[in-house]
Amino acid sequence: MGAARIRPSAAGPRRAFFSGKGGVGKTTAACATAVWAADAGYHALLVTTDPAAHIGAVLEAEVGDTPAPVVGVARLDAVKVDAKHVTQQYKADVLADARARFDAATVAQITEELDSPCTEEVAVFQRFLTYLLSDTYEVVVFDTAPTGHTLRLLALPLDYRDQLSVKAHVSEESARVDAAELARMSAALDVVRDPALTTMALVLYPETTPIAEAQRAAADLAREGIATGLVIANQVLPEEVCVNPFFRNRRAMQASHLGRLPLVFPGVDLSLLPLRPEDVRGLPALREVGAQLYGASEPAKASVAK
Question: In total, how many domains does the chain have?
Answer without folding.
Answer: 1
